[in-house]
Amino acid sequence: MNAIDFPAHVQLRIPVTELSQVGSARRAATELGARLRLEPFQSGREALIATELATNLVKHARDGELLLRVLGDDGSEGLEFLAIDRGPGIENLAECLRDGYSSAGSPGTGLGAIRRMADAHDIDSRVALGTVIMARILAARERQRSDLEVGAICLPLPGETACGDAWALTRRAHGCRLIVADGLGHGPGAAEASQAAIASFRAQPNATPWEALEAAHGACRSTRGAAVLVAEIDRGESELRYAGVGNISGALIDAYGWRSLVSHNGTVGHELRKVQPFVLPWRPGATLIVHSDGIGTRWNLAAYPGVIGRHPAVIASVLYRDFARGRDDVTVLVVAGKGESPWAAGS
Q1: Residue 198 and residue 247 share a domain
Q2: What pLDDT score does 112 carry?
Q3: Same domain, yes or no, for 137 and 154?
Q4: What is the rounded CA–CA span in Å between residue 169 and residue 73?
Q5: Which of 29, 69, 204, 325 is the most buried (most CB within 10 A)?
Q6: How many structural domains is the chain composed of?
């Protein structure tokens, strides 16, 4: 599938392990950049950022990949780059961010150049595990930080062109509504089911999460069915309200600890045994993580000191890199209050 054909909620994945793939990354970024209504001075930045990120992956990393996505389903507008590798990691990150530093005999402008060209950026690097670099080019009106930051990974099973997972998020004055859907199996049939759930969610913008889940059940009857979780963050009432059916997992993490989200057995569209409303407190600094079963459930971010507080796109990338099962579509959606990352937009 060409880059220009990819739906907004799905990343275009480009393996980057050799120099010949740098050109592929640059061309894909240019194609996706054509979707955006960027100001004249922004033209060309997407190609430069993709080139720098891909070149760094070839020179310094192993098992590197670049994920590209046109932002849109989270209420923003722009182009996102996620460079992900599986080692060796950066021992002295502050030194690497300084222009002129190089460990490969190059001019040493890569990370510094990315930092200057991007409107939003963040990085997480751990020795032996690897590095994630996020960079975004944003439309001018999107550059003000909102009270909630959003990041997501959504990728089809390797070898498939259709993704059986889907997600959507709509912002509100005091929060947001979101949905993650995983169509049974993978491929076009699974994609049809998850997209039916997404369409139903969008058609009822004022429904509670449990009402939206029941509506999705009706919308998915003619499909193979899906696992679905719908949630609403209400910062005015300081609440997270949600309901889920099937194997969609999640957690709410804040200064008071970790609360797993409950999802009842069943299949939306075929067997809806129970739709139960749940309400949890949404406190300042909270992070919500929701994912399909393409991610293993035994992750624990306590093993990654400092990752909470990074941009949600970086958190999602770390979970994808280290916990993806590799045999199914994968979606990770992360929503957090304003981060305090030194790389965050507006800092």
Answers
A1: yes
A2: 83
A3: no
A4: 6
A5: 29
A6: 2
